[in-house]
Automatic annotation (TrEMBL):
The keyword Nucleus does not apply. One of its GO terms (biological process) is cellular response to oxidative stress. Coiled coil: none annotated. InterPro entries: Ccp1-like, Haem_peroxidase, Haem_peroxidase_sf, Peroxidase_I. Residues 91-275 form the Plant heme peroxidase family profile domain. It is found in: Plastid, Chloroplast thylakoid lumen. This is Thylakoid lumenal 29 kDa protein, chloroplastic. One of its GO terms (molecular function) is heme binding. Belongs to the peroxidase family.
Amino acid sequence: MGVSLLSTFTSLVNVPSLTISTTPTIRFPSNAVVIRCNKMDTDVPDENVLRRREVLKCFGAAVGMELLASSGSFVEMASAADLIQRRQRSEFQSSIRQTLSAAIKGKPELIPYILTLALNDAITYDKATKSGGPNGSIRLSSEISRPENNGLSAALNLIEEAKQEIDSYSKGGPISFADLIPFAGQSAVKATFLASAIRKCGGNIEKGSILYSAYGSSGQWGLFDRQFGRTDSQEPDPEGRVPQWGKATVQEMKNKFSSIGLGPRQLAVMSAFLGPDQAATEALLATDPDVTPWVQKYQRSRETVSQTDYEVDLITTLTKLCSLGQQINYEAYTYPARKIELSKLKL
């Protein structure tokens, strides 16, 4: 209300001369807060006075309430700043998706390789040492040239070109590869979801887009989007942490997924990430009794209109992979908001 509680307490400053009536309530102006102090017996006969300790208690209460009342403005300011940063990051992410979507639309043949690139960058995570993970190290020449990353250079080139465009309009600094590679994986996944919806509509792009918008899983990406603010590694991750998916046995794949806390279910749902031919990958995975039921589950799901089970489980697994071992800077890519000079506004 704009009234200071301390301003109502001046009567307590002069301690020696302070007296009160027999009613144990000190009343302040009607728009102030009432503070009650106990009546104390003193050596002065027939007088009710407050001892110094009681005065200090009352004064402390007034100060505390003053601070509490004024703290609301600080909370409001902090909340407003947080909302501004969230909006800035959200708008930046929307622009990133548009750039990546256009790049992928121009080279749809690279979608399987973008998926594998995102997987291989993230799956280097080691639980024992808490190192590796989606830190963008796969961009380094000594890592992208490894056997398990054979054939992924074109996908990386697409991401590097997209990065140049994104950095050109970023107001909060250049985007890290550690953030951009997972977002490229997300865009590639969304492209496969949309392509599936279009196929179910007989190849009609407009109807397929409506179907995906109506029944798709766009609303499931919230946690993925919040994991935004990773830092690039300046060193390659240790060798030997990523299988060559095209040569690995199902047991080797299971062992790798198990080492980062994932199981047969997650292995099955990530089949599109394990090579350019998803059908061939699933045929191999289906030879393992632990993985077979999950492969069949997701194949059935992909035949439904919404393919909900497949999409939701894939998004959940990708979200977990892309957060392994990473410290997120939730203020990344934010920038000072432009101040509006009210005097220059034309009303």
